[in-house]
Design brief:
Helix content: 40-55%
Strand order of the largest sheet: 5-4-3-6-9-8-10
Shape: globular
Structural class: alpha/beta
Largest sheet: 7 strands, mixed
Length: about 575
């Protein structure tokens, strides 16, 4: 009886796949325009939305892919039907958080892209700020136009076949429901018999095993067909990145520094100085624990410092950022995901079990040390608490309801993707949701405006909270990560400076400028190729009453901190070659 029931289930599944495949063929027109992409993946993809299913029309997607998407998304999430307009984050009742956000974006028509694996990326909108506009092109040519290639007769023939198959499927679905009812009745009787023979404890154990087996069978029906997008998103189903470190014999307290850049002159000016200070402090005691540094370059082409800085190049979501764009940081999560994907193919990309994520505008003071071995799961990572990140923001609360119903504002770290010291496996866990929410925010104007220029940092924090990662988040003066002058007047325990703010020194009347430094002064290509020495503030004079441009008193401590930072930067600049073309 069990074998007969299994055959019936198999017949219904096959029919479902055939129907979905015919519907897909009807809408795609059979044109081979784009590479295969996961359907229910968190990765953004480009192309059309099927009129019948709301499924990406991709000629190389198998019928199993489409059948899986229909079953996993529309059956479990009826609110995602393509006729429903979605303008906000999906409802909190949705069980498949990532899938719902992607269907949201598909329906809004606000994203585009290409599956990325091992150094290939998704292609997003040519302008991330232009919500609702889809660029429709990738490296392989235009894929946004009409599917074309099918005449009216062909479409009518396929449509008739679909209707016939659908009617046949309805018949078998009814039959399947009857079989399930019978099976449920038999299972209930078996449990009652087990309870009578074995007692309550034994019956509960049998019930638990049956439930677990049913759950595994249901998961297998979704995950083991097609391109297995769910498995790709489930961190437990992916290789453990720490295993790559173990197989290479990497000590548990070693650190691999990683930072992202779009290769603009502005960021190359900063990156060259940061790498220069890194090379200097590696010669200090404890510097041997910093075993490698990699720049993740999200850029269409190599840049001028490829030979100077170890670089992994990722394809950008916004190619226009090669020259200039509004918010190049929107590409960061996707670029890190490309590097993670590539590390699964080439384990040698992983240089240490700890990963230290930084930005270009950092200056090293001394080596940093982890709290302990990355192989000990009780040892926490570390993150910096920014006082301008508010975990209680209403939009953050709304996203948490969807992505992490059991999370609260207190579980959101209030940090960002830099600086943070984490295990590779933790970065791998947080990055998919970081990537998904980064794009969601970019394509929803209300969220983008409300969260401002730190919006991508909020996306990271939610990714960390949802995965419940073991990270200790501390701010100044307790942290051993960064200090941020002129906001912070002293170094304390910090191992790095972060010069996100400029500093303009004025006289007591606040009308005359005495001295100034700001990274935004150095955006010219010549500054990145031949980095100029930076002017130091004038010697401190206690008889003078000077102030920073925001009214902060110019104290001896602040003077010393700013002078130290710029002195370290100049020491690094002295080591940098002139890259100006001869």
């Amino acid at each position: 009886a069990g074998s007969s029931w299994n055959r019936r289930v198999l017949i219904v599944v096959v029919c479902a796949c055939l129907v979905a495949g015919l519907i897909y063929s009807f809408n795609s027109g059979g044109k081979d325009k784009a590479p295969r992409r996961p359907i229910a993946s968190i990765k953004m993809f480009q192309g059309q939305q099927s009129v019948a299913e709301g499924v990406q029309t991709d000629p190389k997607v198998t019928t199993a892919d489409v059948g899986q998407h229909v079953g996993a998304v529309f059956k479990d999430h009826p609110h995602e039907q393509p006729d429903n307009k979605v303008d906000t984050m999906p409802a909190a009742s949705d069980k498949d958080a990532r899938g719902s956000a992607i269907v949201d974006i598909m329906k809004a028509g606000q994203s585009s892209g290409q599956e990325h694996t091992s150094g290939q990326s998704t292609k997003a909108s040519a302008d991330a700020t232009a919500a609702g506009e889809q660029t429709g092109s990738d490296d392989r040519g235009d894929v946004s136009g009409e599917s074309g290639g099918s005449n009216v007769a062909e479409q009518h023939e396929i449509s008739s076949g679909v209707k016939a198959a659908a009617a046949h499927l309805d018949h078998h679905s009814l039959h399947l429901e009857q079989q399930i009812a019978k099976a449920t009745e038999l299972l209930t009787k078996a449990r009652e018999k087990a309870k009578a023979e074995q007692g309550g404890a034994g019956a509960d154990e049998v019930d638990g095993k049956d439930s677990a087996q049913s759950a595994r069978a249901a998961d297998a029906a979704v995950v083991t067909t097609g391109s297995k997008p769910q498995a790709a998103e489930d961190s437990s189903a992916l290789p453990d990145l720490l295993a790559y470190s173990k197989e290479q014999g990497q000590p548990g307290d070693t650190i691999h520094v990683l930072f992202t850049s779009n290769g603009s002159p502005y960021q190359n000016f900063q990156a060259r100085i940061m790498v220069g200070t890194y090379n200097i402090i590696r010669k200090m005691p404890g510097g041997d624990k910093l075993v490698a540094m990699t720049r993740i370059l999200h850029r269409s082409t190599p840049d001028e410092v490829m030979d100077e800085i170890p670089t992994f190049r990722a394809d950008p979501l916004q190619p226009e950022c090669d020259t200039w764009c509004w918010f190049p940081v929107a590409d960061r999560a996707n670029a890190v995901q490309q590097w993670i994907n590539a590390s699964h193919q080439d384990h040698s990309l992983v240089k240490a079990p700890w990963l230290l994520l930084l930005e270009t505008d950092y200056v090293w003071i001394k080596p940093i040390a982890a709290f302990g071995s990355a192989y000990d799961p009780t040892v926490p990572g570390m993150a910096f608490r920014f006082d301008y990140i508010s975990p209680t923001h209403p939009i953050v609360a709304d996203i948490l309801k969807e992505k992490c119903p059991d999370c609260s504002a207190s579980t959101v770290p209030g940090s960002g993707p830099a600086p943070v010291l984490m295990r590779f496996s933790d970065v791998r866990a947080a990055t998919p949701l970081w990537e998904e929410l980064s794009l969601w925010i970019e394509t929803h104007e209300h969220a983008k405006k409300a969260l401002g220029w730190v919006r991508e940092m909020y996306a990271w924090d939610i990714g960390v909270a949802a995965n419940k990662l073991n990270i200790k988040c501390e701010g100044h003066p307790h942290t051993s990560l960064i200090t941020q002058p002129p906001h912070d007047h002293e170094v304390y325990n910090a191992t790095m400076f972060h010069y996100t703010w400029g500093c303009i020194l004025k006289d007591s009347t606040m009308t005359n400028e005495i001295w100034k430094f700001d990274k935004r002064f150095y955006t010219d290509a010549k500054d990145a190729l031949k980095v100029p020495k930076l002017p130091l503030p004038p010697p401190f004079n206690e008889s003078e009453t000077l102030k920073v441009h925001d009214g902060t008193p110019w104290t001896k401590n602040l003077h010393g901190t700013m002078t130290l930072m710029l002195t370290l930067m100049n020491a690094a600049i002295d080591t940098l070659p002139d890259l100006t073309p001869q």
